[in-house]
Amino acid sequence: MVSNRCKIAVKDELKKLGLHFIVVDLGEVEIMESLTPEKREQVKMALFDSGFELMDDKRAVLIERIKNTIIEMVHHTDELIKTNFSIYLSEKLNHDYTYLANLFSEVQGTTIEQFIISHKIERIKELIIYGEENITEIAWRMNYSSVAHLSNQFKKVTGLSPSHFKQLKDKRRSPIEEIGNSNEIN
Q1: Last residue within a domain, chosen from 92, 109, 126
Q2: Going by C-beta distance under 8 Å and a sequence separation of 6 or more, which residues neighbour residue 116?
């Protein structure tokens, strides 16, 4: 589960099954009742039908918690990211970061760092498109040491500079009053 809509969908499925939950959070659910094997299978199938997966493997659950923690931190918080991700993950998940990093790499075939960078770049794209902050403000918000660092990482991942990406975004949109005019240049 990576969004509030996902949480709502899971809550709805649990309610349909007559289950009472204590917590429905990103990647985890705590249910008040004990589940019989039959009821557990019902939950598994209901979640599957809604596009979710019930995970039993402790390693898979931990990987999902790593992903959800990163996604929550990068995409769903308005706080400035001013902490080192390795420390944050280690404290939040109660595991040594080296263990988390090795497990993640082994299972996912990529590093936690690359996963974080990918999500930070997607968030930066979103912030550029919104246009409410300039690149300096975005660099500060996303905890880059400088605009140059953000720009270099953005270009390495996307092949475009942030300013070029912004220009492309601006070119895709036409003012409403210009749409349909015969002298419009595409």
Answers
A1: 109
A2: 70, 74, 85
Phi and psi (nearest 5°) for 22?
A: -95, -45
3-state class of 142 per DSSP? Answer: coil
- pTM strictly above 0.70: no
- Strands 28-31 and 21-25 turn out to be antiparallel
Instruction: Count CA within 13 A, CB hemisphere, residue 29.
Output: 28
Extended strands (E) in the chain:
21-25, 28-31
Range of the domain at 69: 56-74+82-109
Look at residue 183 and give its three-state secondary structure: coil
Give the number of other CB atoms < 10 A from CB of residue 144.
Answer: 21
> Model confidence over 128-183: pLDDT tens digits?
998 889 999 999 888 899 999 999 999 999 999 999 998 887 665 556 556 555 44
Q: Tell me, yes or no, whether 123 and 101 share the same domain.
A: no
